[in-house]
Write a structure and sequence with these properties.
Layout: E1 13-18, E2 21-26, H1 37-52, E3 58-62, H2 75-78, H3 91-114, E4 119-123, E5 126-128, H4 130-136, E6 140-144, E7 148-150, H5 164-171, H6 174-183, E8 186-188, H7 189-195, E9 201-202, H8 205-220, H9 224-239, H10 242-256, H11 259-271
Parallel strand pairs: 2-3, 3-4, 4-6, 5-7, 6-9
Antiparallel strand pairs: 1-2, 7-8
Helix pairs in contact: 1-3, 4-5, 9-10
C-alpha cells in the first residue's frame, strides 16, 4: 500500500502501490472528477514522489463514476488569482502573471511525460477539455465503449492551452486535431481507436481497467532500466530528427547498456519465471 505519510492526502486522488504498480485513481465522481485547484497541485506532487523515490515501475491512472473527467473546474478561472482578477489598467502585468500560471498548469501534465516510468490511462465516459490535455501526456491510452473525447475549450470561447495541441498533433492526424479543435465535436471511442488515440476499446469499465492492470503487470516484470530507456528514446525520437535519435540511443547505450540485466532476462525466460532486476535508484534531493 501507498505510504500516505510521504505525500499529503489528496481530495482528488486515491493512490495505492502494490506489485510495483502505482495506481492513481480520480475519486470525485459526484463532481464528474472536475479539475479543482487541489487537482493541479496534488497530481505533480504524487507523481514526483513515485518517480523520484522509485516507488513503482509503472503508473496506472483510472477514474470513477460516469465520466473520466469533465475537465477544468470553473473555480480555477473565477477565484483567487484566476483570469477574472485585476483591472484593465494592469492588463500587461496580469498577462505576465497569467503566462506563468498557465505554465504551472502545463507542468501538472508534463510530469507524466517526463516521469522515468510508463504512465497508462483508462478512460470511461467523458474526457473533456483539460482531461484531453491530461490523457495526451500519458504513454498509452485505452477506453471503454462509452468514452468520448472533446476539446471543450472552443465551446467556451478559448484556445486549449495546457498541452492538447503540442501533444495531440504527435498522436493523431493533424486534420483530426483541427476538426476537433475548431468544432468542439465529440470524438467517439471507436473513432479514437481508428485514428490511433487509444490502443483498444472495451465494452465495460471493468474490462477496461482489468486490461490496463494486466498490461501494467507485464511491463513491471521487465527490467526497469530497459523500460525507462525505451521511454526516454521514444520521447526523444518524437521531439528530434532520426539522425539525432540514432546518435542519442548510441550515447545512452554507452553508459546504460547492462549485460547483467540481459543475462537475468535470458535466465528468467528460460526458467519461465519472473526476473530479479534492480530497481531504478531514487533521485537525490534537488537543491
Amino acid at each position: 500500500m501507498y505510504d500516505s505519510q510521504s505525500t499529503p492526502t489528496s481530495t482528488c486522488f486515491e493512490v495505492t502501490i502494490a506489485d510495483h504498480i502505482a495506481h492513481i485513481q480520480l475519486k470525485r465522481p459526484e463532481a464528474f472528477n472536475s479539475m479543482t485547484r487541489d487537482f493541479w497541485n496534488d497530481l505533480p506532487k504524487i507523481v514526483k514522489d513515485i518517480n523520484d523515490n522509485s516507488r513503482a515501475r509503472v503508473i496506472v491512472i483510472t477514474s470513477t463514476g460516469k465520466h473520466f473527467s469533465a475537465g477544468m473546474d470553473l473555480s480555477v478561472f473565477s477565484s483567487g488569482d484566476g483570469v477574472t482578477q485585476g483591472s484593465v489598467s494592469d492588463r500587461e502585468t496580469r498577462g505576465e502573471s497569467f503566462r506563468l500560471h498557465v505554465h504551472h498548469l502545463q507542468n501538472t501534465f508534463t510530469c507524466l511525460d517526463e516521469a522515468r516510468i510508463p504512465v497508462l490511462v483508462a478512460v470511461q465516459g467523458g474526457c473533456i477539455g483539460g482531461a484531453v490535455d491530461f490523457i495526451s501526456a500519458c504513454d498509452i491510452r485505452w477506453a471503454s465503449a462509452d468514452a468520448f473525447f472533446c476539446i471543450q475549450e472552443i465551446n467556451i470561447g478559448m484556445t486549449a492551452d495546457v498541452g492538447t495541441f503540442p501533444r495531440l498533433c504527435k498522436l493523431i492526424p493533424e486534420g483530426w486535431v483541427r476538426e476537433l479543435a475548431y468544432t468542439g465535436r465529440r470524438l467517439t471511442a471507436a473513432k479514437a481507436k481508428e485514428i490511433g488515440l487509444v490502443n483498444e476499446v472495451f465494452e465495460t469499465h471493468e474490462a477496461l481497467v482489468a486490461h490496463v492492470m494486466d498490461t501494467a503487470r507485464e511491463i513491471a516484470a521487465k527490467a526497469p532500466l530497459a523500460v525507462t530507456g525505451s521511454k526516454v528514446m521514444i520521447n526523444y525520437a518524437r521531439d528530434h530528427s532520426i539522425r539525432d535519435g540514432l546518435d542519442y540511443i548510441a550515447t545512452w547505450q554507452a553508459g546504460m547498456f547492462s549485460p547483467a540485466h540481459m543475462a537475468e532476462a535470458f535466465r528468467a525466460n528460460a526458467a519461465k519465471e519472473p526476473g530479479n532486476f534492480p530497481e531504478l535508484l531514487p533521485l537525490r534531493n534537488r537543491m
